[in-house]
Write a sequence for this structure.
């Protein structure tokens, strides 16, 4: 009964490259959320998705960031042309459609931009 | 807008009770949460409380909610060294996303 899976756990990119972060929700969960945690800070909401739909992207930077949750496969958070300020831990959470008040978090992907 | 505040650090002796406090500003929050984060790990949901409740107890954990003062607390009884971690308070906003505080780093002294 696997929990929320994220990969890679650690990702190193040079400035200008692309970063792709993947999230597989818990079995049976159709709601996915992405959060970012900067060093020594709390988590900040980025985007909320259901299968094939973006429900709320109010926390996403306007440029370079995109997210998807296709019908098949994991949710992807994509960061184009990364900059040093993108270095952070990115956490995915998922919830069941009948218990959306309960979000379960993955272990996170730690992105380091050199 | 939402704002969730917590004190940054708390130290307690093993066996004592820990009380971690949190204040929030969004009176329309429906649920309030406590998450635990150990070094290099994700967030573990400890407990949560519906906004029309005053108290919730779960084994060593007691959550108190004062909705009038917008104050939430987490009490850990008989604190153990394994409880050392960062504890985040969070509120669920109307948009269903969670708004987190900056976290309280709990250190348990043997």
């Amino acid at each position: 009964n696997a929990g929320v899976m994220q990969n890679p756990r650690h990702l190193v990119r040079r400035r200008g490259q692309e970063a792709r972060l993947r999230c597989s929700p818990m079995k049976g969960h159709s709601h996915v959320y992405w959060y970012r945690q900067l060093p020594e800070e709390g988590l900040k909401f980025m985007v909320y998705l259901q299968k094939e739909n973006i429900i709320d992207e109010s926390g996403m930077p306007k440029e370079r960031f995109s997210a998807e949750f296709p019908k098949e496969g994991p949710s992807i958070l994509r960061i184009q042309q990364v900059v040093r300020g993108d270095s952070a831990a990115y956490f995915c959470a998922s919830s069941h459609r009948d218990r959306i008040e309960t979000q379960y978090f993955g272990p996170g992907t730690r992105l380091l931009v050199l | 807008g939402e704002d969730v505040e917590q004190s940054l650090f708390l130290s307690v002796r093993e066996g004592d009770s820990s009380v971690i406090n949190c204040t929030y500003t969004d009176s329309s929050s429906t649920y309030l949460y406590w998450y635990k984060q150990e070094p290099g790990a994700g967030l573990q949901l400890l407990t949560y409380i519906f906004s029309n409740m005053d108290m919730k107890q779960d084994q060593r954990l007691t959550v108190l909610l004062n909705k009038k003062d917008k104050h939430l607390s987490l009490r850990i009884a008989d604190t153990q060294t394994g409880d050392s971690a960062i504890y985040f308070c969070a509120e669920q906003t109307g948009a269903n996303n969670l708004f987190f505080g900056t976290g309280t780093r709990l250190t348990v002294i043997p």
Summary: DSSP finds no helices and eleven strands in chain A. The first strand of chain A starts at residue 5 and ends at 7.
